[in-house]
């Protein structure tokens, strides 16, 4: 009897389409995604995303830094808090995305700039604290700029939707720079994926 | 035109107070997006990964790269003859554009993509941005991507992060 059942099960197995017969799944070969299983129900770990510019080329880099929770941290609205004592330490690490690539590290600046930056493109005319968005307070990061030759003169805005983040960035840029800021980009603050319908998605910046 | 690149995340370590790569990446990740070519390969190993390369490429047959003070040698291939890399760049490039594969005695340490405009393609910036974006997905602990201009050329260098003093050397286009 047992043998008959085994034979029937074996027969059913071979009748299955190949995709259902597969053993171990092929790991995602995208280098940006590690071969691990993510807990999509877990609250969002704090991610702080900085926008850094190489002023010599106008290239902008969105550097995400994940900050793991401390034991006592409680999620609010499914988002873990970004610890205030860690935040001041992050800008220099974020800036490295540019300084390791630039011939002159002084051309690497934070992409939230004062109006003086257009005439004096110096890091002193940029601000680290406002060139970032935190996942505990925003889902999307927007950047709005005007092009001064090859250099982008930019400001950053945060919001819970792409439209809100872009609007905040554009308003800030127009107010700071006293001119229109037609070049914009937006991306999710965190690359962590959630299953909720309003979860941030996508890694690539949308222009 | 705004270019916003998104490199792999960093992860803060509460104990060491240092931000480190948030993804564990290795030479395998580079090989996956680079046609099997990884740093440290000998000239003939690299040539074997490239379609239609004539046999017999070796250290002794390579040209000297004069922008370096130390003994660095290279061979070059037109990008139109490199279908894998050409496919990364949907935008146009001039027909004289090429990739240089640069070696020390320790093997391959840099790939230098030199995109040159011509009458049919007066701007190669879009192609350079597409290529640079491709390599930004691999963290700087595995491959260090750099984009810069030299006269009318757009250059994307992808360098072994352990290459030390060779890293900051840039190619300069000769005035024609």
- The assembly state of the depicted protein chains is heterodimer
Query: How far apart are the termini of chain B?
Result: 28 Å
Mean pLDDT of chain B: 94
Q: Supply Rg of chain A.
A: 23 Å
Q: Which percent range describes the beta-strand content of chain A?
A: 15-25%
The total count of helices of chain B amounts to: 4
Name the structural class of chain A.
alpha+beta
Measured distance between first and last alpha carbons of chain A: 65 Å
Judging from the principal axes of the Cα atoms, what is the shape of chain B?
Answer: globular
Greatest interface and its participating residue counts: A-B, 42 and 37 residues
Low-pLDDT residue spans of chain B: none
How many runs of DSSP E, i.e. beta strands of chain A? 7
Please give the share of residues in helix of chain A. Answer: 10-25%
Rg calculated over all Cα atoms of chain B: 17 Å
The topology string of helices and strands of chain B comes to EEEHHEEHEEHEE
Structural class label of chain B? alpha+beta
Would you spell out the secondary-structure blueprint of this structure?
The complex is a heterodimer of chains A (207) and B (176).
Chain A: H1 2-15, H2 18-21, E1 46-54, E2 59-67, H3 90-99, E3 108-110, E4 132-134, E5 140-148, E6 151-159, H4 162-177, E7 183-188
Chain B: E1 3-5, E2 10-13, E3 18-21, H1 27-33, H2 43-49, E4 63-64, E5 73-78, H3 83-88, E6 98-104, E7 107-115, H4 125-136, E8 144-150, E9 153-159
Antiparallel strand pairs in B: 2-3, 4-5, 5-6, 6-7, 7-9, 8-9
């Amino acid at each position: 009897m047992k043998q008959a059942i085994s034979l029937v099960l074996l027969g059913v197995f071979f009748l299955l389409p190949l995709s259902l017969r597969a053993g171990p799944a092929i790991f995602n070969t995208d280098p940006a995604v590690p071969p691990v299983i993510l807990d999509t129900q877990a609250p969002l770990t704090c991610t702080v995303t900085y926008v850094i510019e190489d002023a010599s080329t106008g290239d902008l880099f969105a550097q995400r830094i994940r900050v793991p929770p401390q034991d006592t941290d409680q999620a609010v609205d499914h988002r873990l808090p970004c610890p205030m004592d860690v935040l001041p330490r992050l800008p220099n690490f974020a800036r490295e995305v540019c300084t390791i690539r630039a011939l002159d590290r002084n051309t690497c600046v934070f992409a939230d700039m004062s109006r003086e930056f257009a005439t004096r493109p110096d890091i002193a005319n940029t601000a680290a604290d406002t060139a970032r968005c935190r996942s505990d307070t925003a889902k999307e990061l927007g950047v709005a700029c005007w092009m001064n030759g090859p250099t982008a003169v930019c400001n950053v805005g945060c919001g819970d939707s792409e439209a809100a983040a872009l609007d905040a960035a554009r308003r800030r840029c127009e107010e700071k720079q006293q001119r229109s800021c037609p070049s914009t980009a937006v991306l999710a603050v965190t690359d962590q994926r959630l299953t909720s319908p309003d979860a941030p998605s996508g890694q690539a910046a949308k222009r | 035109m705004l270019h916003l690149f998104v490199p792999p995340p960093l992860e803060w370590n509460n104990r060491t107070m240092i931000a480190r790569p948030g993804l564990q990446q290795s030479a395998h990740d580079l090989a996956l997006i680079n046609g099997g070519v990884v740093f440290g390969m000998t000239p003939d190993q690299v040539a074997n990964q490239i379609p239609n390369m004539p046999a017999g490429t070796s250290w002794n047959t390579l040209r000297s790269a004069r922008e370096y003070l130390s003994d660095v040698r290279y061979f070059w291939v037109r990008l139109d003859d490199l279908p894998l890399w050409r496919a990364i760049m949907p935008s146009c490039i001039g027909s004289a554009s090429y990739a240089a594969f640069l070696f020390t005695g320790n093997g391959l340490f840099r790939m230098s993509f030199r995109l040159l405009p011509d009458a049919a393609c007066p701007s190669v910036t879009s192609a350079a941005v597409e290529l640079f974006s491709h390599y930004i997905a691999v963290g700087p602990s595995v491959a260090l991507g750099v984009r810069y201009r030299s006269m009318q050329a757009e250059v994307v260098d992808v360098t072994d992060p352990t290459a030390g003093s060779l890293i900051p050397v840039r190619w300069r286009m000769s005035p024609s």
